[in-house]
Amino acid sequence: MRPSDHALLPLVALMLAGLAGCATSQKTASADDQPTLKSLGGRTVEVAKDKKVEANEEKTIAAYRKFLDVAPKAPQRAEAMRRIGDLEMDIADARSADGKGPANGPDYRAAVKRYEDFLKTYPDDKGNDRVLYQLARAQEQAGELETSLKTLDRLVASYPATLYRDEANFRRGELLFTLRDYPKAEKAYATVLASSQRTQYHERSLYMQGWSRFKQGRLEEGLQSFFGVLDLKVAGVDGDGGLDTIVGLSRADRELVEDTFRVTSISLANLQGAESIPAYITDEKRRSYEYRVYEQLGELYLKQDRVKDAADTYSAFARRQPLHAQAPQLQARVIDIYQRNGFPVLALDAKKDYVSRYGTGSEFRRANPAGWEKAQPLVKTHLTELARHYHATAQKSKASADYQEAVRWYRAYIASYPNDPETAQNNFLLAELLYEDKRFAEAAVEYEKVAYQYPNHAKAADAGYAALLSYTNQEKGAAPAQVLVLQRTGVESALRFAKAFPKDSRTGTVLTNASEKLFALRDGDLAADVAQQVIKLDPPAAPAQRRVAWTVVAHNAFDKGRFDQSEKAYGEVLALTPDKDPARNDLTERLAASVYKQGEQARAAGDAKAAVGHFTRVAAVAPTSTVRATAQYDAAAAMIGMKDWDGATRALEDFRQRFPNHPLQADVGSKLALAYLEKQQWSQAAGEFERVAATQKDPQLAREALWQSAELHEKAADAKSGSRVTAAKAYERYLKQYPLPLERGLEARYRMARFAKADGDVKREAVLMKEIYQGDLAGGGARTDRTRYLGATAALTMAEPVVAEYRKVALVEPLARNLKLKKAKMEDALKAYAVAANYGVADVTTAATFQIASLYQDFGQSMIKSERPKKLSKAEREQYDVLLEEQAFPFEEKAIELHETNTKRAADGIYDQWVRNSFTALGKLRPARYGKTERAEGVVDAIR
User: Fold this and answer.
1) Fold held by 1-15+56-163
2) Which string of DSSP letters, residue by residue, matches 181-213?
3) Nearest Cα to 226, choosing from 194, 196, 199, 258?
4) Which of the pair, 124 or 388, is modelled with greater confidence?
5) What is the domain partition of the chain in residue ranges?
6) Which SS3 state, helix, strand or coil, does residue 98 take?
């Protein structure tokens, strides 16, 4: 019975009882019979024992239906309708479980109909997720698979957080899989797997997800799912045989595991077999059952009569997990398969592999003693078989290959008798055979055993030296990375030889070679230590060996930054080197470099004076060395750092003359320029920047250098140590080479215009200012705040000749004509100033505003001061003057208005010369308001 049943049983019982006795009780009850709180307090109630209610699903359904008929508006109708559907579902389930025939068999259609009616009647009921769940189940049981699927789709879409979510998605997957819609089935199972809560459907979903992918031919992805199932069921589970040895599995789990291994093996066989397995063994859990994957794949191959594939699969595991406890068992299967199926050569090779992997000295023994113990009976058997086989073969063929193979297996016998008197000699012969067969690596090992692991004997020193020859021979055909390893091993053997046989005539040569190899291997300190042993040998080593030793000491000291030591050591090497030896040049360079590096160290330590001393000393120690020029350059640089400008300029000027083609010449100019700048020799500095501009390959740097040169010429002109003409020509050169970018080009013209103005060349200034104005006007996207400022300034300057033309017109007779002309000139001037003002540049706008106001003021004053007509009477003259004043008044008012506009800019923080001039002009034009000096100053102070 579901939880909802308990809520409705009392309702049903009361409803049935009420229907029977309702009318009677209403007739017999009276108001006096109604209990009160007081009367209830004194009553006793006898509770009779519950009588068992005889009920079944059919009777309950009938009761619910009667309730629905008599209570059309009862709030319990929804629950009653849902319960009818559940009970009809229970009836169908019970019949299905009993296995009754079709006549009385399960009929889910009634439940389907009831649930569908409920959903139509109560489409928004909060419990509709459960109704949909039951409906889908009923539809599925009724064989309506596609309809059931649609209902489940509706359930998960409408109620994503429903408690039935995981089961619904799992059932969706099952239905989709049954309908062979494998992609959608996979997605449904994936939804279950993505659930935050692991439910009872998780494992089955993982398994079916794998099958869905398998059915789509996506074997690799299917294997991910199947391995996930194995992770849950067999990871870390005991059992070292077949699947039947796995402990703790229920019957259902065992069937699931067996089927999962079966489909896993089929998938792997359809991919690349055993080669595909490692990609899925991603953690320790899977390593715990990895061997079973190989085992089951091998079993599948055997069932398919793929003998070689089965053997290779078992071998693959043994190679991949050589130390695993099951590795010997699988490798033994390989031997057994080959022997039983008639592959003697392969069986023989497998025996060799088995003995090698699980023999007495194997790593397997150290890593897995228990597994090794189990493998030993077969190890002993196969070792005996191999030794006897190759012994007999060698006796018959006399072939070198057969003897070498015999040597391989007789190593065990040598190892078994380490204290036998003949072992050292036999081991030496073994090493000789290996050497003759060009198996130098093995020979070296055996020679070293003979030389150092047995008590002293006649062949010990010879064996030790032969080991060195073996290492040398190995290097000839080895890869570069292996050569380094061999050299290191050979050096270790050489040092061992020198220690064991110090008086041997070959010791000096051995140590010298070891020292050179160590240095080549970048083990400089050890190489130098070995070289010191050569230097200290008694009797002394040969001069050539001592020269090599001193060279190693010098090179190591140089590489380790001990340059004072390397300087001394290179001196020793040069003393041992003949004058005509070509190596002297390189040694001299090294000596010079040692001195130079001491200068670098002093410079890095902040001792500039010492650095200059070492850099300068290079010329004395090795005057012809290539590093001399660099040393002189660095000495000059250090002097710059010390602010020894005179010394730096001397060194750099000498460098320029002595080493004209040196690559550092490109940097001499900039350093000389710096020195000249510090000495305030502007013209010389400008000349250096011109050199830099001429030699610099980077166009941007060259441009900046030429600009700086022009600025320095300008600075020299300002300091009276140069001329404005030179500065102007420098800017002209810059402008010719670099007309762009726009801002720098206009700036150059502006400075040239200043020079022209200073020289009184008004015409030249006007031309340049016009170019500036036109350049900015046509600048488009290249315009900047600076170009606009320069354009505004140019426009302001261009207005000056227009104003001059205005001022030339005097208001004299004929007055009407001159007044008209002057007014026209004034309009021209106003337009010129308007162009400048419209730029919106603050100080240009204030200047233009002031000048425009002054023009209005001047025009008014000019009218008042104009020449009067002749032959006017006194009355006419007075009337004429009044008329002139009336005509001039608007111009004066306009001037006042413009000056006031200018002065108001002070409130915005603009208080330049032109604003102050407007304040002054207003003080004269309206003294009553603006002529109060103290108050005006107070306003200015407040603005500032």
Assistant:
1) 1.25.40
2) -HHHHHHHHHHHHT-SS--TTHHHHHHHHHHHH
3) 258
4) 124
5) 1-15+56-163, 176-217, 219-321, 788-943
6) helix
